[in-house]
Amino acid sequence: MAIVVVCDFDNLEPWINALKEVDPSVDIIKINEVKDKSSVGFVLAWNYPHGLFRKYPGVKTISSMGAGVDHLVNDPLLPENINIVRIVDPRLSQDMFEFALAVIMNRLRQLTQFRENQMRGIWKKKRYLRISNIRVGIMGTGAIGNHLATKLHNAGFKVAGWGRTAGKPADYKKYHGQEQLPDLLKSSDLLICLLPLTPATKDILNKNNLRMLPRNAWLVNLGRGEHVVDEDLIELLDSEHLDGANLDVFREEPLPEVHPFWKHPKIFITPHLASLPFPESVAPQIIDNYHRTMENKPLLNMVDRQLGY
Ligand code: GLV
Questions:
Q1: Is pLDDT at 10 greater than 90 in this prediction?
Q2: 31: CA distance to ligand 1 center in Å?
Q3: Which residues line ligand 1 (CB under 6 A)?
Q4: Ranges of each domain in the chain
């Protein structure tokens, strides 16, 4: 048996090396090198063509290469019996916190604006906001969202989180369920989306919801592009309801050249890198789940395919 890898990255070597380092006895094979499709039991996948796994009748487990599993649960042709597991990694959570902190601090101290002034030879002081001045709302209070909310709370921000269910008590204010979404939105000067993409969260950052944010609020989308209704976001930025948005994820990636987000003065784009899975950091849990699959043991970080995460 082996771990079979299918993904849209150019360079798989770091993954193969990291997995081999953890367990040299496991073969790591690229999907196009598989000779006998029925022998494949465990797959490591990221963005593969839908329907692919109908041709691999022996697959028991597919591990996502990242935290997100929308590329798997959205495959209408993925056989029902296949278990999906995802990556839960403290490094992913910490990197997301570090990225979000950078974005928030840039919002507070407007470093990008000063750089633009510099290019135009302008020396102009401006009042700035402080950590204690803004309320941060976090949509998604799973492993990554909870880490982010806790760290921001500890750094002195006023933080509230919102999730599908109440979950465990936390040091920050928690809202949950559809009825409490307005409570979160109305009290978020800066809203960070870290939700998983599911039928319930698709298009959640639409006009109606974004309008509930206070005037001059800022949006940071670190979840998935499909959470945002692009035209609605542009409308609210143009009507000055929102002051700006940092977007790391998009409906189509790379963001098409003609997309209006590129040139929008209030939109700040990064190419989906807020938090990247590091092969060395996540290889142990992948190897662990491989052995659990082979030994028919309960898997780590199982995804509920009904819920979609
Ligand atoms: C990145 O988007 C991930 O899901 O890990």
A1: no
A2: 21
A3: 66-68, 277
A4: 3-89+277-294, 90-269
